[in-house]
């Protein structure tokens, strides 16, 4: 197993990440399908190539984070794969240029945020590892944000890959795009912004590392609520077999309690 990160990147899926498990799949055109089959034949028994999405607190080069530990555990189970870590956009590009799979991601995340890049491909996904959601956070004890229009006339720090045209259209806010979850939490704590847009559990993990109060959010406002972080692969026979084997191992880890132990107290496990 080879873990390599080309440069540090903030979280996902993020936008990867990370929307509901709806299967809005695009149709594979004839040339794409034939290329995939040709590549499959050429690969033979080669390990499954997974483009890992670099997440500041969950998946890093030589890290001991949650997803790092999960990847190591799955490798111990003799699953034949090779995971290389990239920043999000580069991971998606690798998925379209030779990688078999991407992790963590979801069918909906790819279809929503990377529709143009993944056009003409058909994907399959493993059972989700855990749930991820994007929330609007405020300082502990302050009024939470129940709707995006409540950000009007406020200072907001958002994830670098956050699409303003989808979620903040018509909102009159001063917006800072920041790649790091830790930096956003720090900006919120030091009152440089009124709110931040970030992911759970990443915001909690960043606050824990900084030793600051855990930011709060309004449960009525969520993007990607119930989004499962999965291994998403090109649809073909080899990858389908890998996904089946992976699902078996994930279920065993879930039933034994090892998955909960690996992912920690802030993770929301798929039941």
UniProtKB/TrEMBL annotation:
Keywords: Signal. It comes from the Bacteria. Residues 1-24 form the signal peptide. This is Substrate-binding periplasmic protein. It comes from Cellvibrio fontiphilus.
């Amino acid at each position: 197993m080879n873990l390599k990160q080309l440069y540090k990147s903030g979280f996902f899926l993020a936008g990867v990440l990370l929307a509901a498990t709806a299967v809005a799949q695009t149709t594979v055109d004839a040339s794409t399908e034939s290329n995939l089959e040709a590549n499959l034949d050429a690969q033979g028994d080669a390990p499954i190539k997974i483009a890992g999405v670099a997440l500041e607190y969950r998946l890093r080069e030589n890290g001991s984070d949650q997803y790092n530990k999960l990847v190591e555990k799955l490798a111990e189970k003799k699953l034949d794969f090779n995971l290389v870590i990239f920043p999000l956009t580069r991971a998606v590009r690798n998925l379209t240029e030779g990688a078999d799979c991407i992790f963590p991601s979801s069918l909906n995340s790819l279809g929503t945020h990377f529709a143009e890049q993944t056009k003409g491909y058909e994907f399959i996904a493993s059972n989700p590892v855990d749930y991820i959601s994007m929330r609007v956070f405020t300082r502990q004890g302050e009024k939470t944000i129940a709707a995006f229009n409540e950000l009007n006339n406020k200072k907001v720090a958002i994830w670098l890959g956050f699409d303003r045209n989808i979620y903040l259209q018509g909102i009159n806010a001063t917006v800072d795009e920041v790649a790091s979850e830790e930096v956003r939490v720090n900006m919120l704590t030091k009152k440089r912004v009124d709110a931040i847009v970030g992911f759970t559990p990443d915001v909690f993990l960043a606050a824990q590392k900084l030793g600051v109060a855990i930011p709060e959010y309004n449960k009525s406002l969520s993007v990607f609520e119930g989004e499962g972080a999965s291994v998403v692969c090109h649809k073909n026979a080899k990858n389908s077999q890998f996904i089946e084997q992976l699902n078996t191992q994930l279920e065993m880890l879930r039933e034994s309690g090892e998955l909960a132990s690996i992912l920690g107290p802030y993770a929301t496990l798929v039941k």
